[in-house]
Amino acid sequence: QVQLVESGGGLVQPGGSLRLSCAASGFTFRNDWMYWVRQAPGKGLEWVATISPIDSQFYSDSVKGRFTISRDNAKNILYLQMNSLKPEDTALYYCARDRNGARKGQGTQVTVSS
Asked: What is the DSSP code string of 28-81?
């Protein structure tokens, strides 16, 4: 069956970095557009970044210039490199097969706090 398993979250100070990973299985990963979405406490799902099968990348204005989405099609892994983290980046981060997060994993928590 389809599985998306996120990892790499944690507690980090403002200005710090984290790299999230998402291991995908059960579908042809290399052919799919893939997404990162997030949900902050008390808020709805927010789109963060998109990568196409040919590595075109798109970012929300809130993370542009700080986050980088990438993929390893040989290993079926999606990544999100997050730099210059801010407290407002605190959220549960999901990898997903659609922009609205209808098909997403279980998430990994990122907390940015001093």
From this structure: -GGGS-EEEEEE-TTS-EEEEEEE-TT--EEE-TTTTTTEEEEEETTTTEEEEE
- With b for 16 or more beta-carbon neighbours within 10 A and e for fewer, the 69-105 pattern comes to bebeeeebbbbbebeebeeebbbbbbbbbeeebeebb
What is residue 101's predicted lDDT score, i.e. its pLDDT? 86
| Percentage of residues of the chain with pLDDT beyond 90 | 97
Burial class (CB in 10 A: 0-12, 13-18, 19+), 64: exposed
- The DSSP secondary-structure symbol of 104 reads B
pLDDT tens by residue, 14-36? 999 999 999 999 999 999 999 99
- Rounded to the nearest angstrom, the gap between the alpha carbon of residue 105 and the centroid of all alpha carbons in its chain is 10
